[in-house]
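From the methods appendix. Each design record in this collection lists the tokenized structure first, followed by the designed amino acid sequence. Records were kept in a plain field format so they could be parsed without special tools. The example shown here is representative of the layout used throughout.

RECORD:
FOLD TOKENS (283 positions):
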């Protein structure tokens, strides 16, 4: 969505009269738009969604621990492979300048056939694996592991990267609230804005990098701050980056978004093991 297309959407709601103020808070994001491709046609090590990952021989398919049945017996299950990104394709879109020129990022998350899994601390087990350039020549395409439901064998799609422009829900509400006149906006006014933002501005059937998390119920940045404050209370606070907002719309029985968040210092150090993952349902 270009700034002009964003303005056109705002105009339909009568919000364009505040455009001069709104355009000071718009931001750029990168859309990852999936489209089908034949399984055998996809080269190893390229950007893609679904199928099976391309990993070096020494890197196993990630697993997570959960309690099986009967008798609350602890077991391990394979995570679901979401997508992989060739770092070279990100350089044009990377607003931080911190991504490496080469290498591969692979995203996994703990899910079952009905829900996103949470561990005993309420966190979502996930892995973001960075394959360095020197290991890229040894990549091999894995097969689906035993124990992974067929529903979670995601279809292979190529991903088109496209820059887009948007405005966050909170920022839009703030602008409209400041310009509402002598009386503050009421509940119905806010619900109208939320409905417009959700239906018109949140990209559907695509994933997002580098923008702001589109969440109905959670303040994702605040959730990140609370987690790190608990884990590392003596460390100074740092800004977080939306590494990936993954839409679950195409997975049967699941919906909502996954948010992969990383601190800029961790991204600079390629410490993807420190990524935090959150889930928000649209309900």
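DESIGN:
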């Amino acid at each position: 969505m270009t700034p002009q297309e964003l303005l056109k959407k705002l105009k339909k709601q009568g919000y364009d009269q505040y455009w001069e103020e709104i355009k000071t808070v718009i931001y750029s994001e990168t859309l990852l738009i999936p489209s089908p491709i034949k399984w055998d046609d996809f080269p190893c090590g390229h950007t893609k969604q679904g199928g099976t990952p391309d990993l070096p021989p020494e890197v196993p398919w990630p697993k997570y621990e959960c309690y099986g049945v009967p008798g609350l017996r602890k077991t391990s299950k394979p995570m679901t492979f979401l997508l992989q990104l060739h770092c070279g394709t990100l350089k044009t879109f990377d607003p931080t300048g911190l991504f490496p020129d080469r290498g591969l990022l692979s995203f996994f998350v703990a899910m079952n056939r009905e829900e996103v899994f949470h561990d005993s601390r309420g966190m979502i087990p996930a892995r973001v694996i960075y394959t360095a350039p020197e290991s890229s020549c040894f990549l091999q395409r894995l097969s689906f592991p035993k124990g992974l439901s067929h529903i979670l064998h995601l279809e292979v799609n190529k991903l088109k990267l496209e820059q887009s422009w948007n405005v966050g829900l909170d920022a839009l509400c703030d602008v409209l609230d400041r310009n509402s006149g002598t009386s503050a906006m009421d509940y119905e006014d806010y619900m109208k804005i939320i409905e417009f933002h959700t239906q018109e501005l949140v990209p559907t059937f695509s994933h997002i990098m580098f923008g702001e998390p589109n969440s109905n119920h959670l303040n994702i940045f605040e959730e990140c701050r609370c987690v790190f404050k608990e884990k590392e209370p003596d460390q100074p606070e740092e800004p977080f980056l939306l590494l990936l907002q993954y839409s679950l719309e195409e997975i049967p029985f699941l919906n909502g978004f996954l948010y992969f968040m990383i601190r800029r210092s961790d991204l600079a150090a390629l410490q993807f093991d420190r990524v935090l993952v959150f889930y928000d349902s649209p309900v």
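APPENDIX NOTE: The CA atoms of residues 113 and 149 lie 7 Å apart.
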